[in-house]
């Protein structure tokens, strides 16, 4: 078992560069199933476990893929099969994003049901509702969901009951090759939706209105290859801004787009953190006592749920009580018990957590319960007295490229070891003792 070991106490300083956005590149790779002509080259990708999984998923469909350190090449001229393997889908919920493109391109898709995960039940009813309105028919059995399109997908007017990111993306991708116009109302507005729309347009599609709650897609007969760069990861950027804040450090987060981080920046400023928004990134400087604040997660442009646990880590170091409310996911407080093990004083009440900041924090053995929770525990470890060990790193690896190395670059006392390596180093210490 691997773990991250952090010794708290260092004030982080310096410059860190963010990678391409996980939540942009996953749907864009799924959308690469759509072109029947030419090759796709996606650049600035983060080489994360999730990116490897979705690329393998495309390969398992017989699509030609080549994944490198910072780019992926995809040639979907030939799609051999439309059935996704369970072993890949179970690793990552975003796998369901291949349903829309498969139905549009091949009129069939059979995908294992994505199931629940550490942050809640995460239904797919809005994906299905949208695709059904466009003429797809679904059957569920033996843990799989099978979709068929008797003729060709046709444009439809779809109102989403919840502004789901994944449902908006699946419908947008399917609509790109459908007959006629699709209108998605109450669509999600996240920057990753805009990036997917830009990608679809770059391969010859016609998407308008992405970034607002009404998206119009005019279907075309075929799509073709292109080269495309994904947007920087706003959640990774926010995590390094949180690292600067919690350690009362000073960090320039290169590549961070401040407009994508407005609610997070507003809350940091409310707490007394200095944030300077530049063209190439965001500069964060924190000192002394921070004020407590209340935070509520909401769909974009509200405060992102994917920065909720990192914000909670910061609030543990503020002077006074803060109330943090999670409205996007039903069960995204699994990290609270782990944070309590490090001396955090907090109480869950329904969808809110009351955080009594300013307690003495101490290192402990803790486990990542989801990818952002894992990062948040590392953040607490940066300021806790003594040593923190974070396990279940597979979660962190889904969302962060070289987290340990990037924090080391900012002066953190942090390392990643396997149990064998740790045992070996202990044996060496003993033999010198
Ligand atoms: C790969 C990716 O991009 N993941 C992001 C995406 O996840 P994802 O696309 O899964 O999130 P959604 O926006 O779909 O989910 C938001 C809420 O809508 C509910 N819902 C969703 C679909 C549906 O058919 N029915 C339904 O009720 C969910 O249970 C949840 O409560 O957006 C989330 C919300 O910003 C982020 O936390 C995730 O990091
Ligand atoms: C919840 C997240 O991702 P996913 O939807 O892929 O689980 C996240 O990125 O914080």
Automatic annotation (TrEMBL):
One Pfam family matching this protein: EPSP_synthase
Active site positions, chain numbering: 117 (proton donor)
InterPro entries according to UniProt: Enolpyruvate_Tfrase_dom, Enolpyruvate_Tfrase_sf, MurA_subfamily, RNA3'P_cycl/enolpyr_Trfase_a/b, UDP_GlcNAc_COvinyl_MurA
Pathway linked to the protein: Cell wall biogenesis; peptidoglycan biosynthesis
Amino acids binding phosphoenolpyruvate: 22-23
Example GO molecular function: UDP-N-acetylglucosamine 1-carboxyvinyltransferase activity
Substrates-to-products reaction catalysed: phosphoenolpyruvate + UDP-N-acetyl-alpha-D-glucosamine = UDP-N-acetyl-3-O-(1-carboxyvinyl)-alpha-D-glucosamine + phosphate
Known EC number: 2.5.1.7
Binding positions (UDP-N-acetyl-alpha-D-glucosamine): 93, 122-126, 306, 328
A GO BP annotation: UDP-N-acetylgalactosamine biosynthetic process
Record's subcellular location: Cytoplasm
GO CC term, one of those recorded: cytoplasm
In-chain residues carrying the UniProt-annotated modification 2-(S-cysteinyl)pyruvic acid O-phosphothioketal: 117
Keywords: Cell cycle, Cell division, Cell shape, Cell wall biogenesis/degradation, Cytoplasm, Peptidoglycan synthesis, Pyruvate, Transferase
Primary localization class, coarse: cytoplasm
Keyword Endoplasmic reticulum: no
Start and end residues of each Enolpyruvate transferase domain: 6-407
NCBIfam families (UniProt xref): murA, PRK09369.1
Function of the molecule: Cell wall formation. Adds enolpyruvyl to UDP-N-acetylglucosamine.
Protein family membership: Belongs to the EPSP synthase family. MurA subfamily.
UniProt protein name: UDP-N-acetylglucosamine 1-carboxyvinyltransferase
Organism: Paludifilum halophilum
Lineage: Bacteria, Bacillati, Bacillota, Bacilli, Bacillales
